[in-house]
């Protein structure tokens, strides 16, 4: 079980936090300024991409953990 826990912690620290950091950074920029419409549209695109990547990372983690737990049983 330690390997599964180590893998989960690794995935959380590298994959989930990366996308979460992107999302938080975009909101910091938005809050600190009043971006022009074009800049705001670009930030929305990056935000959308980060959210989609975060969702995909979570799906991959879920699948990997289910596979590993299933292999143990």
Overview of the molecule:
- The chain has 73 residues and is an all-alpha fold.
- It has one domain (2-72).
- 92% of the residues lie in helices and 0% in strands.
- It contains two helices and no strands.
- Helix 1 (2-32) packs antiparallel against helix 2.
- It is elongated.
- The model has no long low-confidence stretch (mean pLDDT 82).
- Keywords: Coiled coil.
Number of DSSP strand runs = 0
How many structural domains can be distinguished in the coordinates?
Answer: 1
What is the SS-derived class? mainly alpha
**Main sheet properties:** none
Mean pLDDT: 82
Helix-strand sequence:
HH
Gyration radius (Cα, Å) is: 17 Å
Unreliable residue runs: none
Which properties best describe this structure?
about 70 residues, 2 helices, single chain, mainly alpha
Could you give the topology of this structure?
Layout lengths: L1 H31 L4 H36 L1
Helix pairs in contact: 1-2
Write a short abstract of this structure:
Keywords: Coiled coil. This protein has one domain.
């Amino acid at each position: 079980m330690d390997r599964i826990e180590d893998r989960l912690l690794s995935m959380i620290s590298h994959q989930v936090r990366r996308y979460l950091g992107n999302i938080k950074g975009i909101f910091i920029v938005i809050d600190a300024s009043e971006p022009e419409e074009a800049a705001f549209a670009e930030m929305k695109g990056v935000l959308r991409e980060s959210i989609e990547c975060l969702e995909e990372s979570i799906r991959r983690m879920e699948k990997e953990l289910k596979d590993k737990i299933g292999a143990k049983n």
